[in-house]
Amino acid sequence: MMATLQTDQLKQLKAIFMRFDMDSDGSLTHLELAALLRSLGLKPTGDQIHIILHNMDSNGNGYVEFDELVNLILPDLKEEILINQEQLLEVFQSFDRDGNGYITAAELAGSMAKMGHPLSYRELTEMMREADTNGDGVISFNEFANIMAKSATDFLGLKVAAA
């Protein structure tokens, strides 16, 4: 479970990294890093970007290589994922009302409504489609964990800024 979660996250990170490595030289400049952080919803000042770059740049060449980005981000992820496995299971079980190990669309809709987030039919369909990666019409714990990990990856940028 851990390993697959990490390879997925590494793939996502690699894709993000490559998108902003404009000259494809395997490293991010100050400006490319700034663009990457902004894409994650952060608005660091010039000074903050210098500090972030300095913190990441372990080989001191003035650029951020992919492994430097990973080294900064993954330790946080590992901790979060380990802690969250149990919490995740609890959340999953609260959604899985009949306890059969799967979340149906009806269970998802019911739980979201109970939490004060009623879903429109379209939102429900989209959530189910995104989560149900093997297309069997229900969400298994693994599928649930992957979706949660994906939204954690969306918050990753906040981690970088806080570092």
Automatic annotation (TrEMBL):
Keywords recorded for this protein, A-Z: Calcium, Metal-binding, Repeat
GO cellular component: myosin II complex
Annotated ranges, domain EF-hand: 8-43, 44-79, 83-118, 119-154
Pfam families: EF-hand_7
Gene3D superfamilies in the record: EF-hand
Highest taxon of the lineage: Eukaryota
Record's protein name: EF-hand domain-containing protein
